[in-house]
Amino acid sequence: MDAADQAAAYAAADFEEPNSRFVAFFADAVGAPAGPVLDLGCGPGDIVLRLARRYPGVEVHGLDGAEAMLAHARQALGREPELASRVRFLQGTLPDGPLPRSDYAAVTSNSLLHHLHRPADLWATMRRAAAPGAAVLVMDLFRPGSREDAEAIVATYGAGEPDVLRRDFFNSLLAAFTPDEVRRQLREAGLPGLQVETVSDRHLLVHGRLP
Predict the structure, then answer these.
(1) Are 60 and 51 in contact, with CB atoms under 8 Å apart?
(2) DSSP readout, 7-42?
(3) What pLDDT does 14 receive?
């Protein structure tokens, strides 16, 4: 989402419910991280900041390919200067984006997988970035059974949002993977131990530990 209007709409949208749920899933699946955390596809930075608030003393880094998104993330960080020593936002694309560490204790991603032309890049980046045994938590949309189902989901959850966001939501649903497709990706990436489950009528969750 390099376009300024897309980034602005995304940063202003109400993601309180899914982002709060993501952090709750993190707390359940990971607990207090034993070291730094990396969020891939961090967008405007809301989840990075939520994790940094929840876990005082833990470094949290966010990587995103869109500078327009990261501009909003840095603005949000500027409103919370007490987090500045522990939060970093980095620009780069998977699988070769610049990462300051290779020993992250947990790697997360929310709503990135369906944007990737090569989904294997996400799993390869996690293996490159994380310490052995690191926790993984990935949440993403999953593809509904039909365009009509996708339209109904957008009507339910996108009501009142700008047209650009509703259009992106619809296209994202159609581009998303099914749970079985994600399980196949994990087998091909050598990560069959990661679990895939559906956690809402539109979201799936991947969680577990890296080898």
Answers:
(1) yes
(2) HHHHHHS--HHHHHHHHHHHHHHT-S-SS-EEEET-
(3) 52
pLDDT in tens, 99-140: 999 999 999 999 999 999 999 999 999 999 999 999 999 999
Beta bridge partners of 196: 206
Report d(CA 22, CA 15) in Å as an integer.
Answer: 10
d(CA 24, CA 190): 27
DSSP per-residue string spanning 121-181: HHHHHHHHHEEEEEEEEEEEEB--SSHHHHHHHHHHHSTTS-HHHHHHHHHHHHHPBPHHH
pTM score, whole prediction: 0.91
Q: What is the spatial distance between Cα 24 and Cα 50, in angstroms, rounded to a whole number?
A: 10
Average pLDDT score, the chain: 92
> What gap in Å lies between CA 97 and CA 170, rounded to an integer?
28
Sheet order of strands, 195-198 included: 87-91, 60-64, 37-40, 104-110, 130-141, 203-209, 195-198
Stronger pLDDT, 126 or 11, i.e. the higher one: 126
The alpha carbon of 7 is separated from its chain's Cα centroid by a whole number of angstroms, namely 15
Cβ contacts of 161 within 8 Å, gap of 6 or more: 9, 13, 14, 169
Mark 40-62 as b/e (b = at least 16 C-beta within 10 Å): bbbbbbbbbbbbbeebeebbbbb
State the pLDDT confidence band at 162, using cuts at 50, 70 and 90: confident
